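Deliverable D4.2, example record:
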Amino acid sequence: MKRLLLALLVIVLLVTAGLLIGRAVLDLHRPAAPVQRLLPQAERELLLYFGDNQSAFLVEQRLRLPDSGDEMQLLRQLIAALIAGPSPSATVLVPVLPPASRLQDAVLAADGTLLLDFNRALIDQHPGGSASELLTVRALANTVSANFPEIKRVRLLVDGLVITTLKGHLDLRGPVSADFSLVRPEEMQDGSQETAAVNEERQ
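Output generated by the structure prediction step:
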């Protein structure tokens, strides 16, 4: 009886050892999992328009943003960058939107009109004045039209309602088109950039 049990134990051990060896051999010959390489995310260079503290013009500034291929998402990022204001190094540029303003929704109509729905801060915290209101509206229209050719005009809303004006100086009862005649001429921009560079060196 003892011999029979011993023989069975030896058989079990041999079978177990064989299974373990066979699994190890299979693991050695199994192809390695492919290494996943993270591709660099595509970027897109965009144009933004800010105010100029030395003139009544708009000034162009370039910005690179991640491009996921979703145009509306990129548009929202663009408006967020416009709200954030110019880069600190651009000392001659000034914001065109109140810092507390937020884009709540954006819808592109079939006729190329972009509906931009902001929160109340767009009106409540706007400094007002005919020049300031004009730069705000044209900066928005120019920025979206320069980067998205399918957008022909902009209509502003606040909390889902169409507004007629920001502070009473500019009529917004209809959509607004881009106006690049308000952009500062290139020769003037070069001069201001040199001045800004000199100021940075002095600091």
